[in-house]
C-alpha cells in the first residue's frame, strides 16, 4: 500500500495512505494532536489523580512512534518511571520513521537517538530506553490482545472507524477494559456515538472532552473499580 509523507498544519509530518484516504495523525497537526489527546487528557490527567511507580501504558497503534516519544519527553521532565508497551500489526520502517523528523519538530534534536531506539529496539521483549523508561514493542493484531489488569493508561490510536470499523467494536473495547487496572483510563481522538456506546457497553464511564485542532470532541473512558471485567 502506497505511503506518502505529508506536512500537517502545525509543521510536523505524518504518513498519508492514499488508497484509504487515511492519515497516521491529524492533518491539522500531528504533534498538537499527540500532545492534546494523549499527554494532556491522558498522561497528565491520570498522574494528577495518583502516584505510579512505574506508570504502565499500553499504546494501541504504535505507528510512527510519536506518542511514545512525546511520552518519554514528558516523563523526563518530572522523572516519572514508565513501563510502555506499544502494539503494532503493521510496523513502520526505521527509514519512514526518520523521515518524520519528530525530534526536530519538538525542538529535541539532541534526543534523536532516543527516537531511533524506539524503532530499533527488539520486538517482544522489554528494552531500556533510559533507566526510567522501559519500552516493549509487540507485533500483534489488536483482536489478539489478552492482557488482564496490567495497565494504568491506554492510548487508543487505531486507524479511524471509517476505514477499520472492526477496531472500534464492543469486542475490542472489552479487551481494553480487561487490560486496564481499576480506575485505569483510556483516551482516544475519536468521539463517534457508536464508539462511546461500545465503551459504555463493556463497563467504561465515558467523558466527551474538547478535541485537538480540527476536531470538536474526543473521548476519555475510565474503568471504575466497582465494576467487574468485561466478557
| Helical content class | 25-40%
Mean pLDDT across all residues, rounded? 95
| Content-based structural category | alpha/beta
Number of E-type strands: 11
How would you describe this protein?
With 231 residues, the chain is of the alpha/beta class. It has helices spanning 30-49, 66-78, 94-100, 102-105, 112-120, 170-179, 193-201, and strands at residues 4-7, 13-17, 22-23, 55-60, 82-88, 127-130, 133-139, 151-156, 180-188, 205-210, 217-222. The strands form 2 sheets. The chain has an 8-stranded mixed β-sheet, with helices on both faces. Strands 1-2-3 form a 3-stranded antiparallel β-sheet, with helices on one face. Strand 10 (205-210) and strand 11 (217-222) form a beta hairpin. It starts with a strand and ends in a 9-residue tail after the last strand.
Annotate the secondary structure layout.
Blueprint: E1 4-7, E2 13-17, E3 22-23, H1 30-49, E4 55-60, H2 66-78, E5 82-88, H3 94-100, H4 102-105, H5 112-120, E6 127-130, E7 133-139, E8 151-156, H6 170-179, E9 180-188, H7 193-201, E10 205-210, E11 217-222
Parallel strand pairs: 4-5, 4-8, 5-7, 8-9
Antiparallel strand pairs: 1-2, 2-3, 6-7, 9-11, 10-11
What keywords describe this structure?
single chain, alpha/beta, 231 residues, three-stranded antiparallel sheet, globular
